Amino acid sequence: MPALEGPKTSVSDQPETAATVNSHQLRVDSTRKMPSFFIVGPPRTGTSWLHDVFSQHVNLPAPTKETRFFDLHFHRGWEWYFRHFADSSDGRMVGEVAPTYFASRSARNLIAQWLPQAKIVFIFRNPVQRLVSLYRLKLAYGTLACGFEDALERDPELIRSSLYATHLREWKSAFPQSQLSIRLYEDLSSNPRGFVEDLAGFLNIPRFTLDESQLAEIYSTKQMTEPKSYFATKAATAMADWCKARKFDSVVAAVKDSSLIRLFLGGGTPFSDIPARSLRKASALLLRETEELEAMIGRDLSAWKTTTE
């Protein structure tokens, strides 16, 4: 039985182009409102929280947060894509919160080709802390079952999505500066109201006030554990991905919101601490990217050059 929406598989660098897609799939219904913005992450930068907050005010994919259309499923065509959105006749803006797009050449090229006026939002987080969070999420959902250093070698997404300066430079070459917004996770976690108000202004979303209930801690892996059964969780995650690709999102969402989720998620041992040596290795590996990003955005990122989780 499909069970849950877990961490995403590694992004693809093989873009779907017009040459690989049937012509009828490339036709866009002129009555549909096209997305005007993409919050591209990378993963583990508060995007799930932002999706929940903005979903009440703009037209975002549902019940699944991410369509993976521009990095995995473009070959399925626009009709498949728009089935993820509610009817746009109510005038609400259409957009996506899609963190896997950040490191995907396919997503970047296809969005630039089909939606050149779209606004793109980036949220950068201390790279070592983000790596640890993404690694633990993958452990929890059964897509990894190894130590931190081994994971860095086995799972390309961990490092690829951490190349902040490299990928930002590529996005900047594809879109005008006026359409790009570069933000830090620390600003979101320290002042969520101000962050959301400023972001809404950039995206031309009518201003709104956050409820007190929305100001809870940004989603994290602190309460997660390793799965009770790695193989059951891995199989459930794979089945959920299969269902979502075939637009059975409601089935996945129903299981995720039911008590059945306990069969697949959690119940195992708490996450182990990452050895300081491993954190230093990861920090050294990404130091150049951090320094280049620091120069690109004009923000002091000295705090990112330490090795604490």
Low-pLDDT residue intervals, each spanning 5 or more residues: 1-6, 9-20
The overall strand count is 4
Distance between the termini: 35 Å
Q: What global shape is seen?
A: globular
Describe the protein in words.
By secondary structure, the chain is mainly α. The protein has one domain: Rossmann fold, CATH 3.40.50. It has 14 helices and four strands. The protein has helices at 23-26, 47-54, 69-73, 77-82, 105-114, 127-140, 148-154, 156-160, 164-174, 185-190, 192-203, 230-245, 249-256, 276-297; strands at residues 37-39, 95-97, 119-124, 180-184. It has a four-stranded parallel sheet, sandwiched between helices. It is globular. The model is unreliable at 1-6 and 9-20 (pLDDT under 50).
Spell out the key features of this protein.
309 residues; 4 strands; 14 helices; mainly alpha; four-stranded parallel beta sheet; Rossmann fold
Ordered list of secondary-structure elements with their pairings:
Blueprint: H1 23-26, E1 37-39, H2 47-54, H3 69-73, H4 77-82, E2 95-97, H5 105-114, E3 119-124, H6 127-140, H7 148-154, H8 156-160, H9 164-174, E4 180-184, H10 185-190, H11 192-203, H12 230-245, H13 249-256, H14 276-297
Parallel strand pairs: 1-2, 1-3, 3-4
Helix pairs in contact: 9-14
Please give a quick description of this structure.
The chain is mostly helical and 309 residues long. The chain has 14 helices and 4 strands. The protein has one domain: P-loop containing nucleotide triphosphate hydrolases (Rossmann fold, 3-Layer(aba) Sandwich), CATH 3.40.50.300.
